[in-house]
Design a protein that fits this description.
By secondary structure, the chain is an alpha/beta fold. It is built from 9 helices and 14 strands. The strands form 2 sheets. Strands 8-9-10-7-11-12-13-14 form an 8-stranded mixed beta sheet. Strands 3-2-1-4-5-6 form a 6-stranded parallel beta sheet, sandwiched between helices.
């Protein structure tokens, strides 16, 4: 097993700080943060000095100067393909932030290039790695609620996400592509692959380009049905941001995750409630710790895979199924029809295991 993994981080913006902290947190487990880069030299310099590593103004410069095992790409999606191709050309692996890329063709190109070079590729789809979501998965796997046959997975907040990420105001595809992708990945993770999807979108805030609310109805290959919701315009006190609210019913019981990460499980005639929240770490803060700890969980998983040679949960091929749901949701919203996603869990996974 590889003893240490040398990691470069491409992108030093607002959310990338969580990736940098996560990699430093994992130093005792074999993560070696080795370099950072950003097209904004001031951001790169600030991050490099804060984390004690060399900094560069571009991924090409970083790759030319520092020997790396993997690059964690934490940039806007329109840059993912170019950076990934530069990384793969040097036979270095990549972890790509979600959304995977701006288009289906870009996703396929990234997957195929990683496959040609025989290098590691994972998509940083981190909600499924949050402690509460792993706990829900464990309850399902225990058989306590039987076979899931209905679910509601919701991200509903009024938190001003535009304040620190003003570029979101100009995104033509907003709620589904930004946070709905997490919800769609979670419904795959918790309920299974999807056969059909319908979607209604709304723009409830003025002055933005895309949808801020989406309500989706999914039929899974198992026959289960799920409702997947996301909005940045909920008016709730307390606001559960950035927590995902979960309801899952099975043929033997149910799971409900309420605000505050209280999970109630009904199994036959038994009912129990437990706190499944993640603890605050020295570098996390309320309420962001829910999301920050998910980044740590994802990075820990990828680190283990890089050291052991195992394939990650969120390979390029796997995440393509989530991406297919995003594309299908937008098509369904435009046509007011049920849409079959391009990939429905069939055996012919595009791009293999990359």
């Amino acid at each position: 097993m590889k003893t240490a993994v040398r990691i470069g981080v491409a992108g030093c913006g607002f959310y990338a700080a969580n990736h940098l902290h996560a990699w430093r947190h994992l130093a005792g487990e074999g993560a070696a943060l080795a370099a950072v880069c950003d097209v904004d030299a001031a951001k790169a310099k600030s991050a490099g000095e804060a984390f004690g590593v060399p900094w560069f103004h571009s991924a090409d410069a970083m790759l030319a100067a520092v020997t790396l095992d993997v690059v964690d790409i934490v940039t806007r999606q329109d840059t993912h393909r170019a950076i990934a191709e530069a990384v793969f050309a040097r036979n270095v692996g990549a972890i790509v932030q979600k959304p995977f890329a701006p288009s289906w063709d870009d996703c396929i190109a990234i997957i195929e290039m990683a496959k040609r070079h025989g290098v590691f590729l994972a998509v940083h789809e981190n909600f499924r790695f949050q402690t509460p979501m792993r706990q829900v998965r464990r309850v399902i796997d225990s058989g306590a609620i039987g076979t899931p046959n209905w679910a509601r997975i919701a991200f509903r907040t009024g938190f001003d996400v535009f304040e620190r990420q003003p570029y979101l105001e100009h995104e033509a595809r907003l709620a589904i592509a930004d946070v709905g992708v997490h919800m769609l990945d979670l419904t795959r993770f918790l309920v299974g692959e999807v056969e059909l999807i319908s979607c209604q979108t709304q723009q409830r805030r003025s002055g933005i380009s895309g949808e801020d609310t989406a309500t989706m109805l999914l039929r899974h290959l198992s026959g289960a049905v799920s409702v997947v919701e996301c909005t940045y315009q909920a008016k709730r006190i307390p606001d559960p941001f950035p927590q995902t609210l979960i309801e899952i019913e099975g043929d033997q019981g149910s799971i409900a995750v309420a605000p505050g990460c209280a999970m109630t499980v009904t199994s036959g005639n038994l009912v129990w409630t437990q706190d499944i929240s993640a603890p605050l770490l020295p570098w996390t803060s309320h309420p962001w710790h829910v999301s920050q700890e998910g980044v740590l969980g994802a990075c820990r998983h990828f680190l283990h895979c890089l050291k052991s040679g195992q394939a990650p949960e969120t390979t390029g091929g796997d995440n393509l199924r989530t991406y297919a749901l995003v594309e299908a949701a937008y098509e369904a919203a435009a046509t007011s029809a049920f849409v079959r996603p391009r990939m429905r869990g069939d055996a012919a996974a595009v791009g293999g295991s990359s």
